[in-house]
Request: fold
Amino acid sequence: MDDSIEKTGKAILDSAFSIHMKFGSGLLEKAYRVILANDLRQKGHSVSEEVEGGFELDGIYYERMYRVDLLVDDAVIVELKSVPRIEPVFMKQCLTYMRFMDKKLGFVINFGMPLLKDGINRVINERK
Reply:
């Protein structure tokens, strides 16, 4: 994988761990999204929040069919959760968004876990 994408991924995880250490697992998903986005921006990254996307099916384009929590450096998708446990559907959702947006790397980060390392899932788009 491209070094710049890996560096972006590392920056995302470093920021997520720092935020979880400060605030723990008690905030809503929106709070983690805003705080993580701002932290990454302060570190020089380009961050778009709640990026809406669509897809084409049988010659018809369907707009605003999904919303990505964060798109960092126009390269890495981040889906955030604040729930008691990770469900397999979260990774499938992230991978689907990555395929629609033609991105190689994504993360599902669940801030609801007592230990953040248990709430991080790296997702790779093999079709890219």
About this structure: The beta strands are 47-57, 60-72, 76-81, 105-110, 120-124.
